[in-house]
Amino acid sequence: MKTLKIAIQKSGRLNEKSVDLLKNCGLNFENYKSSLISPVSNFPLEILFLRDDDIPEYVQDGIADLGIVGENVIQETEVDVAYLQRLGFGKCSLKIAVQNTSNIEDVKELNGKSIATTYPVILGKFLKDNGITADIRTISGSVEISPGLGLSDAICDLVSTGGTLKSNGLKPFADVMSSEAVLIGRKGSENEDLIQELIQRVQSVLRAKETKYVVLNIERKNLDEILKLLPGVKSPTVVPLADEGWVAVHTVIPERDFWARITLLKQAGAQGIVVMPIEKIIL
Ligand code: ATP
Ligand code: MG
């Protein structure tokens, strides 16, 4: 049987979450920092550990069948790959920032200015779309110190919390793109069945992360009210308790409005609420 290859970041911001995701998909492999390639013992798959910049091209050229990488890197390398699944981690935005003391406040005011970045392709398109002509200075790192050194009037860099900008006396004022880690694949791969199986495993892990398993006790007379508070769930399981007036309700609740729901359930008489993480949800 053909062995698939998936490329993930060797070390850096996406490494740990990429490894965790693959392990949660039930894949067994060693994560030695020194190895560039690691076989999976219970699935026809090999994991390639690479610099993130190389991942999109490896996938486009068919050296890897799949890859996990930030959208920012995909767009910067301008490759033609299939977006298979957004992964919900590695979230950040590419922003233009200037020094706190600068009076530039609008994108239009960047005309004729210089902007330092490690993302010249994405920035170039953004400036063109906004009808701006600016001098893009491509540097390979530590972009945030360039205005302070007098190398550029502005920077275009990735921001997650904004802490690095702040500590370098910079303020962001324009969003160029937002990004997260995505699972990509080569267009027209001949290993569709195996790839589909992996995508389904990934999706079952992501779905599980978004939901909690909840068990609660409620007086039978209040059951209807509780069931009304659990929309979206086709049929929660209702189990009789030893005390005949009471039942236990088992259901799943989306993580995002979790606390609001719990409060409403308590107000409706729910007691002994137990919340558990879910490992996988297979539809
Ligand atoms: P490599 O050695 O693999 O080339 P790198 O230094 O280019 O690593 P990292 O800094 O590890 O890359 O970031 C990897 C990805 O993490 C980015 O391309 C981006 O998609 C995402 N990311 C999330 N938050 C941030 C952030 N605050 N700064 C930079 N990247 C971020
Ligand atoms: Mg890189």
Q: What does this molecule look like?
A:
The mean pLDDT is 94. The strands form 3 sheets. Strands 2-3-1-4-11-5 form a 6-stranded mixed beta sheet. Helix content is 25%, strand content 32%. With 283 residues, it is of the alpha/beta class. The chain has 3 domains: 4-89 and 180-208, D-Maltodextrin-Binding Protein, domain 2 (3-Layer(aba) Sandwich); 92-179, Periplasmic binding protein-like II (D-Maltodextrin-Binding Protein, domain 2); 211-277, Alpha-Beta Plaits, CATH 3.30.70.120. The chain binds adenosine-5'-triphosphate and magnesium ion. Adenosine-5'-triphosphate binds at residues 9, 12-14, 51-53, 70, 72-73, 90, 92, 158-160, 179. This is ATP phosphoribosyltransferase. Its cofactor is Mg(2+). GO terms for molecular function: ATP binding; ATP phosphoribosyltransferase activity; magnesium ion binding.
